[in-house]
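Morning. Coffee machine broken again, so started the prediction first thing and wrote up yesterday's gels while waiting. Chain of 391 residues, entered below exactly as on the submission form.
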Amino acid sequence: MPSNQRENARKEKQLKKERKIRLIIWIVLIVTVVILAVMRVAEIDFNSVKNKITGGKISVSSESDVYPYSLDNSSGVKLSFVNDKLVVLTDTTCKVLNPADAKELYSFSSGYANPIMTTAGKYLFTVDQGGTRLRLDNTAENVYESTLDDSVLCGDVAKNGNVIYATRTGNNKTTVVVMNNSLKKLLQFRVKDGYLVAVAIDGSGKKCAYATVTSKDAKPVTTLHTINVGDEKIKAKFNYNDSNVLDLQYTSSGELYYVADDSVHLIKSQKKDVETFSHGDVNTVTYNYTPDGELVYVYSKYSDANENFITYVNSNGKVKTSFEVSQKPKFVSANNDLCVLFSDKVSVYSLTQGTEKESFRCDDSITSASKLSSKVFITRHQLIDVLENKE
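Came back before lunch.
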């Protein structure tokens, strides 16, 4: 009889234990369902959410948990997007990050004194301006790094990995080189006149351009040269009197922007000049390009004017969008939308309509703002942060 009692007690204890386990399982399932339901209602991006189950507890961390992202003691932070990846260049390192969780996908320490980077397709081209080193990377690995005999002035990269760069010797002779991603030189020539200040190569790696500056009557004269790879003969030359070139940029269709401090031109088919903003009619405030290389240009009528104009110039040289703002923009970028940084706010506008879509308050410490998908990424000191969409 006592043995039966002990057996019955053992069975009862086992049943209680099983009921307790089933209760715990149901509680976990109910909590999980509730969390998922709340997330669905709040329209949280499930791809950027990580579920952590540790010590019997469930915790949910979202994209906002990884930002602000610290870059330690780096300075001169420059942010760009390459194939929907975040590329961060500082004075010491370059990092390729997954923007959703800031996971480091690839990085390198250049050790360059003055690193200047251009990007196209999957490629990152970095030169040590004033130094003798340059390197080509993609978003996953290094392609090559070279040390030159002469100092590097500037460079650019094509979507197929072809690069153009200019060097200057000790006796002030300048050489332009176009090279493929196997280090084969496709074009090399000596610049015969003027001081070279800018180079550009188109996405196919078959067209290139360079600008030189001379002086006439104590005023600068910028000469733009276009040339096709495989043919050392100059395709065309354009002279711009009393003009200081700021940048050269090819569109994805192979047309070339000439952006100066007081004018904008588009060179079609390497030989036809289309004047978008005439010399002296504008004062350049800031500018940037869309992923297709089309120009987003901000100007005022005169220096220090309160009224500024934000424009989108397509690859035909035509102004497709233009609107006025009452503050001076510090920075502008464009992906699907226009993202404009002012001293006290970041505003997002429709690229094609010019209408404001959203705005975020900020302080003057922010140095750049760029929108990718629904997130606005900003740089501040040694930090990358995210301004959440209000929707």
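Residues 92 and 111 are 6 Å apart (CA to CA). Going to sketch it on the whiteboard this afternoon.
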